[in-house]
Structure formats: structure tokens, C-alpha cells
Please model this.
Amino acid sequence: MTTFQAPRAGERMLPVEEAQRRVLDEVRLVGTEQLAFTEALGRVLREDVRAAEDIPQGDNTAMDGYAVRSEDIAAAPVTLRVIEDLPAGTVATKRVERGTAIRIMTGALIPEGADVVAHVEITDGGSAQVRVLSSLKRGTNIRARGEDMRAGDIVLEAGTPIHAAEVGVLASVQKSIVKVARRPSIAIISTGDEIVDVDEPRPFGKVVNSNSYSLAALARETGALPRMIGIVRDTREATMAAIESALESDFIISSGGVSVGAYDFVKDALDALGAETKFWQVAMKPGKPVVLSRLRDRLYFGLPGNPVSCMVSFILFIAPSIRKAMGQRSNLLPPTVAAKLTANVKSRGDRRSYLRVRVVARNGELLADPMTAQGSGVSTSMVQANGLAIVEQGVTAVTSGTVVDTVLFAPVFSES
Ligand code: AMP
Ligand code: MG
Model:
């Protein structure tokens, strides 16, 4: 019983960028559904959204104060007669004529005749008459009609991920029902004879399944719906059966069983099921054995079993695929920033390393603190880390102070 497979002729470790390109080339769009805009947070919009009218509907005041004629206050201080009081949301019934003012609250439409708002701070705040103490240029404190949105403009494009600002814009244009991508489903399989589940007794020497849960959480964070298939024993038959039971999902992920050990059955099982394997080794550490296969129209990602390798492969390959499947058109890959290492780091040099670092902003600089334990089994190193500092293939040491490309997978904060 051996599944040892030396790389076939022509097979090589793919550079990460090429692997990412190949993965994204294989991704297909998922279908859509209609949702209340209040439920659409975290989804990707699948229709263009237009403004039906100008917003704001007319010129309006940015300040509480008095709508006046700039001519009238040119020789300030001057006293003007207040002819009307205009709370926000009301429309003036009078026109501002020479020598008069209309008291106006932020957001109210500018009355005819006025071309400037004297904010209350430069007046005596009077109600029957007002003394304006300084002159202002025409247009001061006036927000233009349509400055936010113009009637007919596309204000949100199909492919836009919906965050808080997008929800606000949907509300403004009264788009109460929106067409969004349905959540892609992701089946998650954990392989390994040594793996027991969270609520099971753990005999000495066994390992608790953490990958299924961290992967499911990553899937949710990215907008997908995880489906737990559970733990699969290290046999070809069990692996095949698990994969077959997962085929309703848009994506299938497994952890473990993709190396060249005697009990690594994922590639065998995929071959036996007639999958078309696109690649199975990427020139990166952690995470060299990463299988990409297409099986009956589904995409299959076989990730290595080590918890850090699993998460890193998800961040680099699977999260971008989910975004693309939902219809996102740009920013599919995680962002990369330049950050300055705060300690010396080492790498084997045989492939590109992604070192876990904590990126912090200090004095206008991004600093990358490497985690002390960089083993791919050290799951706690992912807790403090928010970035993966890249050490290129062929490089074995990088000294403190060097600026390196760093992939971010969580927010960066200022050091406090
Ligand atoms: P493998 O890639 O199957 O050789 O697994 C490599 C290592 O990853 C194993 O020694 C396990 O300790 C660990 N591992 C595999 N699957 C899981 C899992 N589901 N949860 C946590 N650790 C795992
Ligand atoms: Mg295994």
C-alpha cells in the first residue's frame, strides 16, 4: 500500500502567482438571489444600482444660519430683516429680497434669491432681525444639488461587495430589494486517522480537528456557506465516498492527505473519481502540497493538514475564488503592503516563505514583528498575526530593518 508519487515529468512547483491565476481561471459565477438591502451586508451586488433623482434634490445649507444675498453682507457688519424661519425639510414660501434674510437649518433647501448662508457663528443669532458680522463669498456654506448623486448615474456597480457605506447608498436611493450573489457553498472534509472531533474523547497521540472549524470560519468571513462533511479515515474508499457526498457544493475543500506519505489518499481518490487535477504543488512554505482539481463541474482544493498551511492556502487561493464566484471583479487577492521587519528572519530558500508577522503602524511606518514560532503546526501563531511577510525563493536570511512585501489578512492597527 503506497501512494508515493514522485512528480510526473513536466510537473513542477508552481509559483504562487501562477497558481492563483490558474485557480481564478477555473472559477465560475454562482447564481443570484433577491434580498432586502438590510440583509445584503457581506454579499456582492449583481446589478448596477442607479440614482433615480439628484441627491441632494436641491442646493441646501451645510450650516445652521441665515440665507442671505452676498451683495447685502459685502459691507458687513449689517443688519437684515428675518422674514421666515426654515427648519430642515421645509421649503421657503418667500424669496430673499434686498435687505432680508431667512433663518435656515442644516439640510434645508436654499430659498430663492439667496446665494450664501451666513453661519450662525458670524451673526448675533437674532430672530426678528439679524446682525451679520462678516462678509462671505457667494456660495459659502451651500451644498450643491446632486453633489452626492446625479439622476441616472450608476452609484453602485455590479460586482461591488456590500459594506456599510453601500448599505447607506442603497437606502438613499430607496433600493429596498437588491440582486446579490447567493452564498457559494463550501464542503469541508478533514482527513486523517489521527484526527478526532472536538466533542470526542482524545486518546493520547490523537489530534483534535481544528482545521474544519478554522476553514469554516474563513469561509463565512469571505461570504460563503460552509458545510461540514466531517472527518474521513485515511483510505482511498473513505476519501472517495466523502468527496462524492460533497459534490452538491460549489467548492470542496479537504485538509490533509495531499503529501506523498503512505496514507495520503486525496490525489488517488480524486484520480479514481475521474477528477482533472490542475496542479498539486505550489512553491510556498507553509503549504507546498496544494491540489487544485476540477471534478464534475466543481472545484476541489486539497490543502495540507497542518493548521497554518491550511489557513494560509485558504487566504491565498480559496478566499479569492469565493470572491470571484460571487461576482466581485477587482481586489480578489488579499492586499500586500510594504512593511519593515523588526527582527532577523530565516528561510530555507527552496521555495517562497510566508512568515507570520504582526503588522503595526508606528510613526507613519508599517512595522512587521515576526512571530517567534513559525512552524506550520503552530496554530497560535495565526492568532496574533495579521500578515504574511514574503521571503522569496533563493533567499535564506533577511535582516531586521529590511522592508518586505507583506500580505495582509486582518486589519492593521496603530501601536498604542
Ligand atoms: P497531513 O497533511 O495529512 O500529513 O497532516 C499533517 C499534520 O496536520 C498532521 O500531523 C496533523 O497533526 C495535522 N492535521 C491534519 N488534519 C488536521 C485537522 N483536521 N485539524 C488539526 N490538525 C490537523
Ligand atoms: Mg494525514
